[in-house]
Amino acid sequence: MCISTAFWPGKVTLGLIVLFFASVLPLQLIKAYDIVGTIRLTKKEIIIDDSQRQYSFSILDITGLEVFALEVAGEFYGGKSLMMKQGTSNYLKFKEGGKKREYMFLLEESSVSDLRNLLRAWRDAGVVYILHNRTWQRLKR
C-alpha cells in the first residue's frame, strides 16, 4: 500500500502562522505582577504607599536619586518580536538617612507625560538626579 501526500505549501505556512499567533496571544493577556501600593512623585517629595504603611521622603533629604525608566507597558521588544513589555522593570533608587532605598514601579503610557513633566520640574528646581531611560519615550534630563 502506497500513500502519497500532496499539499500546497502556502496552507502549511498559513497554518503555522495561525498556530504561532494563537500561542503568543495568551502570553500578552497574562499579568505577571501584582500592584502592592503606589508611588507618588511631587516637586518636593516622594511618597510610597504600600498596603501597610505610608512613607514620605523630602527631595531635600535624599541623595543619589536615580530614576530607571526601562520599559513602558505595551511597548514592543525590539526587532521582529511580537511580545509586549509589561512596564514593571522600572525603579527609583536613592539614599535617605544613610539608608539605601529602591522601589519598583509600573510605568504605563498614560503616566509618561506626567513623569516627563515632573523630571523637568525637578531639573528646573535644581534637584540632582540621574535618569536611565531605556524606553522609546523621550524623557530628557
Textual characterization of the structure:
The chain is of the alpha+beta class and 141 residues long. The protein is globular, with a radius of gyration of 22 Å. The chain has a single domain (34-133), classed as PH-domain like (Roll), CATH 2.30.29. A hairpin with a 2-residue loop joins strand 5 (90-96) and strand 6. The chain has helices at residues 9-29, 109-124; strands spanning 37-41, 45-50, 54-58, 62-69, 90-96, 99-105, 129-133.
- 3D shape: globular
Strand content: 25-35%
- Across the major sheet, the strand order is 6-5-4-7
**Derived structural class:** alpha+beta
- Portion of residues in helices? 25-40%
**Can you identify the CATH class?**
Mainly Beta
Q: Could you give the count of β-strands? A: 7
Write the layout of secondary structure elements.
Elements lengths: L8 H21 L7 E5 L3 E6 L3 E5 L3 E8 L20 E7 L2 E7 L3 H16 L4 E5 L8
Parallel strand pairs: 4-7
Antiparallel strand pairs: 1-2, 2-3, 4-5, 5-6
Tags for this model:
141 residues, alpha+beta, PH-domain like, 4-stranded mixed beta sheet, 3-stranded antiparallel beta sheet, 2 helices, 7 strands, 26% helix, disordered N terminus
